[in-house]
Amino acid sequence: KRITVGGLRVQSTVKATKSIIEAGINVQNSRMYIDAIFGKSGNAVQKFKQAQDFAAKTPFNSVDITNAMAKAQMLGLGTSQSDMNKYADLGSIAKLNGSGGIAEAVDAYADMMNGEFERMQTILGIKKRDLEQYAKDNNMGRFTNKQGQITDKDKLKDVFDSYIQSRGITGITEKYSQTLEGRLSTLSDNFKT
Asked: How many C-beta neighbours within 10 Å does residue 128 have?
């Protein structure tokens, strides 16, 4: 078969058009998802805009961020800017070590808050006993009872936040977004939306 330059141009145009349409569909679906989770109120509009703005500063695309935010809300987690920063930092580590992205980070965090550390161990390599020891070493108090059950989720959150800060994980998304992969992700997402 002989392929002409004109044929290649048409094929490239079709592929580009298909990619643009798929990106638009994904953004629309994310918008419907966030509307369903946050309600069709001003809060949903605000959260969608927050997700879009935040995605521009991360190595994640707007669909990933929007879906992670909605998932966090569904799981009873926070969706404030500081919460999203934490999920993005965990997601950046997951992306770097090949264990997932921001959605997996939200799942791991939700599981951890309920006493299940397997997913967090996959992302960060930490176990509940590691955080218990960290809390003890830093005079932060206990977040578990003698049976190892989580009894103080606020304390666990404080211990975890301190732990990731001490390990240099807090803020890694900003560094990751400055890498070639992070910049290409942002550029690609800006082109699609």
From this structure: 18
Continuous H helices in the chain: 5-38, 42-55, 62-74, 81-97, 102-113, 118-124, 128-137, 153-166, 172-177, 180-192
Structure tokens given for 85: 């920063």
Q: How far is Cα 147 from Cα 161, in angstroms, rounded to an integer? A: 23
Q: Are 130 and 117 spatial neighbours (Cβ–Cβ below 8 Å)?
A: no
Amino acid type, 181: E
In 3D, which of 120, 41, 125, 44 has the Cα closest to residue 79? 44
Q: Are 65 and 50 in contact (CB under 8 A)?
A: no
The C-alpha atoms of residue 24 and residue 32 are separated, in whole angstroms, by 12
pTM of the model: 0.80
CB 62 within 8 A of CB 34: no
Q: Contact 172/160 with Cβ under 8 angstroms?
A: no
CB atoms near residue 125 (< 10 Å): 10
Question: 164-180, pLDDT tens digit by residue?
Answer: 999 999 999 999 888 76
Gap between the Cα atoms of 117 and 147, Å rounded:
15
**140 has pLDDT over 90:** yes
